[in-house]
Design a protein that fits this description.
571 residues; alpha/beta; Sulfate adenylyltransferase; Rossmann fold; 3 domains; 7-stranded mixed sheet; 5-stranded parallel sheet; binds 3'-phosphate-adenosine-5'-phosphate sulfate; Sulfurylase_cat_dom; EC 2.7.1.25; ATP-binding; Adenylyl-sulfate kinase
């Protein structure tokens, strides 16, 4: 096992001439636009990363994989790799049909010759493959299975036409055969893989270095850049961090290569899967830790898998995997000796220093010190670039309330105050202004209001992502739509919902635009509060009253709230 088989692994691509011809034929076939996960899966299917799979799983293979981690050939395979599609699409595809698989730009990457079409029992899949007997949506893969993946699976062999194009870090991406060729060329015979989805700090550098030394092997840092756990540090930042750590290893012993895998966070099964994928890439050893590819806590606050489950399952199937497991030794910093040591070798009474992931995120968010014993200054610089302190991150303030409640007035006052403070660009997306420039074709039906609010949410999420402040001031009468906007924005920064709670009576009394009168006379239809609903926010971050209060005071309340959330400094 410790001698890699470095002859080329079978790929599913046809040669260039056939590809050209097939592409023309495929133009006539029904086509499926691949999701991000399917793109990742297809790439590894085609380049041999998922060998011995020859396509998306058939129903018999799927059943074997879900129940026993075996393909119908008997080969070990722990993870369903399936083409999930919508019901409508599935209904139009009879087994025996060839379909063109396209990337998001419409480029045809492969042809799938559909042999099987079936509706999976997702609950069963969730329990067997991911949830350790449970169907708990707190598991990202179970959530994906139920809420993102299509309801019907198509299976069959793949004919590869071309790989997906990547514009980022091209020189660092290697197919299994490219890596095998590299190892051959370098004369590397024993190579240990380090799988990761996190930035590397000193403890990881120490442990990988030791693992490689103990296995008398070269080291391949093989991070996943396809899809990892929602909320992880983005791969652009991570790759810059890995590059910074590379020269901390003795030269010419260590290599960095990026793996475009869509992780499922399936713990033990995922560890076995990672091992097979590494074998296909020509590796002989892999570091497997406690809680390898763990999904975090379940909805009861407990771990999905036992701490050693991944190592146990890996060990059990090691011969079939074809890669030797190297134990992941937890490394800790011992203050007295100012060095890292394996935790289980440190004597009692020694002072151990550690910074947890949560603590690290807090320090980054709040711009606090990250000590040199913990990480490399170059890594910290990269992380700080993408996680600026809270008072330099983007955020959105979303005012909601009846027409004439004072949303725009308060938002305008707030905008001026924020601009006076400076530091971040401020954009006001006022209801009326948006309707003039972004949504001029829309009316006030529920459907149109929802489209309008989702557009505002999208623009605000882009502003937030890029470090700006978005102030939104639409009526936004529906709670579900406001929630959807919140979700869209919270991936990138804070979202502050402010309910401008002026009563209908007061808005009507003010009737600043004369619209309430027209609405009462029936001359304006579907008018919020009169002939159309307004769902009062149940848990806004802030509720402001405007009756008998001046605008400046209301804006001040928002500022104080922003300060208490660490989003601005009031100096
Ligand atoms: S929504 O529900 O969030 O899409 O509405 P919004 O984009 O904020 O637009 C509200 C402004 O449009 C004017 N207007 C109406 N409002 C409510 N219902 C009906 N039928 C309607 N027709 C026109 C009104 O001036 C609102 O402005 P504000 O600033 O809220 O008073």
């Amino acid at each position: 096992m410790s001698q890699p088989n470095l002859v080329p692994i079978p790929e599913l691509y046809v040669n260039a001439d056939s590809a050209q011809k097939l592409k023309v034929d495929a133009g006539e076939m029904p086509s499926w636009d691949l999701t991000q996960r399917q793109m990742c899966d297809l790439e590894l299917l085609m380049n041999g990363g998922f060998y011995p799979l020859k396509g998306f799983l058939t129903e018999a293979d799927y059943d074997g994989v879900v129940n026993d981690m075996r393909l119908s050939s008997g080969a070990l395979w722990p993870m369903p790799v399936t083409l999930d599609v919508s019901e409508e699409f599935a209904a139009s595809i009879e087994p025996g049909t060839d379909i063109a698989l396209r990337d998001p730009e419409g480029v045809i990457l492969a042809i799938l010759s559909v042999t099987d079409r079936w509706t999976p029992n997702k609950k069963h899949e969730a329990e067997k493959v991911f949830g350790n007997g449970t169907d708990d949506l707190a598991h990202p893969a179970i959530n994906y299975l139920h809420n993102v993946a299509g309801p019907v699976y198509l299976g069959g062999p793949i004919t590869g036409i071309q790989p997906p194009t990547h514009y980022d870090f091209r020189a660092r991406r290697d197919t299994p055969n490219e890596l095998r060729a590299f190892f051959r060329k370098m004369g590397w015979r024993r190579i240990v893989a380090f799988q990761t989805r996190n930035p590397l700090h000193r403890a990881h550098q120490e442990l990988t270095f030791r693992a490689a030394r103990e296995a008398q092997a070269n080291l391949l840092i093989h991070p996943v850049v396809g899809m990892t756990k929602p909320g992880d540090v983005d791969h652009f930042t991570r790759v810059r961090c890995y590059e910074a750590v590379l020269d901390k290893y003795p030269s010419a012993t260590t290599h960095l290569s990026l793996l475009n895998l869509a992780m499922r966070m399936a713990g033990p099964r995922e560890a076995v899967w990672h091992g097979i994928i590494r074998r296909n890439h020509g590796l002989t050893h892999m570091i497997v830790g406690r809680d390898h590819a763990g999904p975090g806590k379940n909805s009861q606050g407990q771990d999905f898998y036992g701490p050693y489950d991944a190592q146990e399952l890996f060990r059990k199937h090691q011969a079939d995997i074809g890669v030797e497991m190297v134990d992941f030794k937890q490394m800790v910093y011992v203050q007295e000796r100012a060095q890292y040591e394996p935790r289980d070798e440190v004597e009692e009474g020694a002072t151990i220093l550690d910074i947890s992931g949560t603590e690290l995120r807090r320090r980054l968010r709040e711009g606090l010190e990250i000590p040199e014993w913990f990480s490399f200054p170059e890594v910290v610089t990269q992380l700080r670039r993408t996680s600026p302190a809270r008072d330099r991150q983007g955020f959105t303030v979303f005012f909601t309330g009846l027409s004439g409640s004072g949303k725009s007035t308060i938002a305008n006052a707030l905008m001026v105050k924020l601009m006076e403070m400076g530091g971040r660009p401020v954009t006001l997306l006022d209801g009326d202004v948006v309707r003039k420039h972004l949504s001029s074709e829309l009316g006030f039906s529920k459907e149109h209001r929802d489209i309008n609010i989702m557009r505002i949410g999208y623009v605000a999420s882009e502003i937030t992502k890029n470090g700006g402040i978005a102030l939104c001031a639409p009526i936004a009468p529906y709670a579900a739509t406001r929630r959807a906007v919140r979700q869209m924005i919270e991936q990138y920064g804070a979202f502050l919902e402010v309910h401008v709670a002026t009563s209908l009576e007061e808005c009507e009394r003010r009737d600043r635009k004369g619209l309430y009168k027209l609405a009462r006379e029936g001359k304006i239809k579907e008018f919020t509060g009169i002939s159309d609903p307004y769902e009062i926010p149940e848990n806004p971050e802030l509720r402001v009253q405007t009756e008998g209060v001046d605008v400046d005071y209301a804006a001040q309340q928002v500022l104080l709230k922003l300060e208490s959330m660490g989003l601005i400094g009031l100096g």
